[in-house]
Amino acid sequence: MPLSDEEQRLLEQMERALVEEDPKFASTLRGTRFARATRFRLVVSGVAFVVGVVLLMSGVVLGAGAAVQAVLGVVGFVVMLASATLGLNAWHHRQASSEQEDREAADADGGQSGLSLIQGGKDSRKAKPGKGRTKRSSGGSFMQRMEDRWQRRRGDNGY
Predict the structure, then answer these.
(1) Most buried pick, 30, 57, 72, 100, via CB within 10 A?
(2) Considering only CA atoms, which of 152, 123, 124, 150 is closest in space to residue 138?
């Protein structure tokens, strides 16, 4: 039985009040539908993958003509590939949404989660002293970098 206009308006008013009063709780409630849909997609993709395996194997087991075996094998493989792709995509979105919820929770706490990002990588590496190397940018072509590397090796070995 659908809600009347007055009931719908009251429900929307209560939702807005909840979001204003406790946004973290409201986002948690909103996330349950998304989690359910993602879980459903994962289950469906798992079932479809099993169906693809059954199709693939049935072409071999039935011993029908070569054309039927080939068609069943290709169809089974395509079903398996499509279901695996959709399942991995749903899994990726599930992880991304949980990371986003963690970030939102950290923002709601004022960012005091106790964890921080430490910058690193190639830019933070220092040249080793005593080797005569200087820190260079990684610009230039591949061949230029290989020639520089070759020249350094020849210089280090005393040639």
Answers:
(1) 72
(2) 123
Domain count, the chain: 1
How much is the pTM? 0.45
Q: Which domain holds residue 55?
A: 5-108
Tell me whether residue 118 is in a domain.
Answer: no
Cα separation, 13 vs 124, whole angstroms: 52
Provide the residue-wise pLDDT of the chain in tens; the chain has 159 residues.
Answer: 677 888 888 888 888 888 888 877 777 766 666 677 788 888 999 999 999 999 988 877 877 677 888 888 889 999 999 999 998 888 877 766 666 665 655 555 555 545 555 666 555 445 455 454 454 555 678 888 888 888 888 877 665
